[in-house]
Amino acid sequence: MSAVLGATAAGVGDGGVRAATGPRRDGGAGRARPGSGGRVLRFTALVLGALLFLFPFYYMVLGSLQKTPDTSLGGLVPRGSNLTTANYTAIGTAISLPHALFSSGVFTGGVILCTVVLGLLAGYAMAVLEFRGREALFALLLLVQVIPFQLLMIPLYVLVTRDYGLSDTYLGMILPFAINATAVFIFRQFFLGLPTSLFEAARVDGASELAILWRVALPLCRPAILTAVLLTFIGPWNEFLWPFLVTKQQDQQPLAVALANYVSSVAAAADNPFGTVLAGACVLAAPAVVLFLLFQKRFVSTQLGSGVKG
Predict the structure, then answer these.
(1) Closest C-alpha to 143, from 184, 110, 108
(2) Domain span at residue 250?
(3) Which residues of the chain have pLDDT under 50?
(4) Which residues, including other chains, have CB under 8 Å from residue 263's CB and lie 6 or more apart?
(5) Which residues are registered as beta bridge partners of 58?
(6) pLDDT tens digit sequence for 210-219
(7) Which of 71, 93, 191, 212 is 20–30 Å from 82 (CA)?
(8) Which of 279, 271, 230 is nearest to 255 (CA)?
């Protein structure tokens, strides 16, 4: 009798298991999976979007290498008989390209150095230190970003050239861009995301705030520094109006100003004005494009907790 009951229970148990697991397998098999058609459509849309955004760069490079401008649809295909580097040679001889690149490098490097150092100090103070009016100061910092630079250009020009006597100097070009509200905001938000235990432990060990910033915060904020550098680089590298106002000597003018003077005065007399202008645009855009391609994967870092042990 017990054997019969055991067999019956085993059969019921097996049936229950089969009944419970059977529909689950059927449901799993019948569940709709995303088809490959959606992936193909998304991939096609991304490829078309990439080609749409890359086309101006392709057309700029191709036009800068043409002997004679070809604005027809057939001109979109490069032809060996119509390719030359004479446009770049013409620019290099007309504007003294090494001097222009050196001036742009000094101007951009000085702005980046001041922006990173001052932004790092200000961002650390607004995120870590406790003082009265900190939130009001941060709100004022955000308000400064709303004010256009052109509105302050005339008083800045009078202050820098007449009062300070910094016309035709690199310091006169760098000074108005020495502090960047965007960089301060980046560093502040980064430091707010760090664990407060890092700073509290350093204070317990007797470290000063500058020592905490140098030994604790700075090694962790390399992604923020890189982001601030990349975002700051574009502004001074492409800046035209302010260096044009404060510099009159050609050996002090950055590349953007030198190219603008060349396009407005000399390029019309060139053999291929269209190609010469595009060659100048390629020279101006190339460093920024290369910089972003090299460091685009390092904008965001999620390893903020790597400095916390235990």
Answers:
(1) 184
(2) 98-254+289-302
(3) 1-30, 32, 300-310
(4) 276, 277, 280
(5) none
(6) 888 888 888 8
(7) 93
(8) 279
